[in-house]
TrEMBL record:
Annotated spans, Disordered: 314-340
Reaction equation(s) it catalyzes: L-cysteinyl-[protein] + hexadecanoyl-CoA = S-hexadecanoyl-L-cysteinyl-[protein] + CoA
UniProt lineage: Eukaryota, Metazoa, Chordata, Craniata, Vertebrata
TM regions (residue ranges): 12-31, 51-71, 174-198, 210-234
Keywords: Acyltransferase, Membrane, Transferase, Transmembrane, Transmembrane helix
Residue ranges of domain Palmitoyltransferase DHHC in the record: 127-249
Localisation: Membrane
Protein name listed in UniProt: Palmitoyltransferase
Native source species: Ictalurus punctatus
């Protein structure tokens, strides 16, 4: 027991190493750019002021978004999705797998859940409830269990070691902004440093301790820019299709079968789900995503095709939940099924 606790403690410590590496590189880049380039290399006061202003705006936005991506807790399912004491006892006392599956299915029919488990054959899959044995809950749509965080995460995208956090419903916008401002940070550094890199290279500037910092600064900025360009491009494509990284590799299963585009409701609505209605706040790490992460609009299912819609309405009409909030969905779009 003590050994297991010690291993978990070591794992938590080592999980911060990627964050420490990124932080160290950024702090060095700040010193190299502000002091070695702007203070020790530049002589034009106007140029120096312009460089420092643009750099610090990008630096502040990068740090802000990185902080929010790291320290925003991953959103977990509400108590409505956890098994009650009675249901849990009934489920654990039952030894027949088919009966256990039916117990979970009966509970799921009372919740706004539209996806099914992916294990087993097609018929088995379409009739299986997504249940987490570790957390003892019925998984909401797009929710997955993270083995690193040891909890179920709403609209889980992936566990990112570079932010030491699960990227999901609560911080996906922050993660996208972190990638965007990281790339902008690299672009600003590379574009302003390049001319002085050439001057050091051809000998127009005297050799000094600033030369190493300027040369290495350009190399690091370009290297990170190329990596971020592909990663950000991939996540922009995911947002446009309204998919998570997990859903891109394994299509969610609905009542009528697997469908990679099941949550794709059009480019505009897909963007609004992540960034919100207020476009002035799109570029700031302030939570504006629509809904509460438990249910999402579907693309092609109609009321007559979806037997769970009536169950969802019953769930909404059950009064207040255990948290004291109204069971009604905050955004009508999250329960309206659009027909294309």
């Amino acid at each position: 027991m003590a050994l297991s606790r010690g291993l978990r403690c070591c794992q938590r410590i080592f999980s911060w190493i990627p964050v420490v590496i990124i932080s160290a590189v950024v702090l060095w880049s700040y010193y190299a750019y502000v002091f070695e380039l702007c203070f020790f290399t530049l002589h034009n006061t106007l140029e120096k002021a312009a460089y420092l202003l643009v750099f610090h705006v990008c630096f502040v936005m990068f740090c802000w978004t990185y902080w929010k991506a790291i320290f925003t807790p991953a959103a977990t399912p509400s108590k409505k999705f956890h098994l009650s004491y009675t249901d849990k006892e009934r489920y654990e006392m039952e030894e027949r797998p088919d009966v256990q599956k039916q117990i979970l299915l009966d509970i799921a029919n009372k919740l706004p859940i539209f996806t099914r488990a992916q294990s087993g054959g097609r018929q088995t899959s379409l009739n299986s409830t997504r249940f987490c044995d570790h957390c003892q809950l019925i998984k909401p749509d797009r929710c997955h269990h993270c083995s690193v965080c040891e909890t179920c995460v709403l609209k889980m995208d992936h566990h990112c070691p570079w932010v030491n956090n699960c990227v999901g419903f609560s911080n996906y916008k922050f993660f996208l902004l972190f990638l965007s401002y990281s790339m902008l940070y690299c672009v600003v550094i590379a574009s302003t440093v390049f001319q002085y890199f050439l001057k050091f290279w051809v000998g127009e500037l005297p050799n000094s301790h600033a030369k190493f910092h300027v040369l290495f600064l350009l190399f690091v900025a370009v290297m990170f820019f190329v990596s971020l360009m592909f990663l950000l491009g991939y996540h922009c494509w995911l947002v446009a299709k309204n998919r998570s990284t997990l859903e891109a590799f394994s299509a969610p299963v609905f009542h009528n079968g697997p469908d990679r585009n099941g949550f794709n409701v059009g480019l505009r609505k897909n963007l609004l789900q992540v960034f919100g209605e207020d476009k002035k706040l799109w570029f700031f790490p302030i939570f504006t995503s629509q809904g509460d992460g438990h249910y999402f609009p579907l693309r092609t299912l109609s009321e007559c095709q979806n037997p769970l819609l009536a169950s969802e309405r019953r769930w909404r009409e059950d009064g207040s939940d255990e948290d004291g909030t109204d069971g009604e969905v905050e955004n009508d779009a999250s329960v309206r099924l659009d027909i294309e």
